[in-house]
Design goal:
This protein has 150 residues and is mainly beta. It is built from three helices and seven strands.
């Protein structure tokens, strides 16, 4: 039971299920953040450190952990990190990070590298009410105006 509760958010058919111990308060039933796995492709070698991976992951949300392969800090085609995602925040498809200046071996302030970002399980977040589990087309909070058919 503790292992299941420690995970916090589970997904069934892309819909989050938030679990808590019996009797604990979930507030009004609205979570403000969830753990989210993120893949970073084209990550330069000099970002394959704990600090570098944390810096890149923090562009989405505070880092929680890395998957086993990424945690070995051995460059592979992509890094996979779990971050604390604030529901409703934008999920970028790419991010820019500072490039390494080969002369000074310091991160440059002038040149950048694009890192491709993908989400193995993109959460279903409504654009209207910013809640999990449905999209704006099924949002109960959005008022719809229809025209009568003749």
């Amino acid at each position: 039971m503790n292992a299941v509760l420690a995970r916090g958010t589970w997904y069934f058919e892309r819909k989050p299920v938030l679990l808590s111990a019996w009797g604990s308060d979930l507030g009004e039933g609205n979570a403000s953040s969830i753990p989210l796995w993120v893949k970073f492709k084209n990550l330069p070698d000099y970002y394959w450190t704990r600090e570098g991976l944390s810096c890149v992951a923090s562009s989405i949300g505070p880092p929680i952990c890395a998957d086993k392969t990424t945690a070995l800090l051995d460059p592979v085609p992509f890094a996979k990190m779990c971050v604390r995602y604030n529901i409703g925040d934008p999920l970028p498809e790419s991010i820019k990070v500072a490039a390494l200046d080969v002369k000074t071996m310091e991160l440059s302030n002038d040149s950048f590298v694009d890192i491709e970002v993908s989400y193995p399980q993109r959460p279903m977040v409504c654009g209207g009410c910013k809640m999990l589990g449905h999209l704006i087309g099924a949002c109960p909070s959005v008022k719809r105006f229809g025209s009568k058919r003749k």
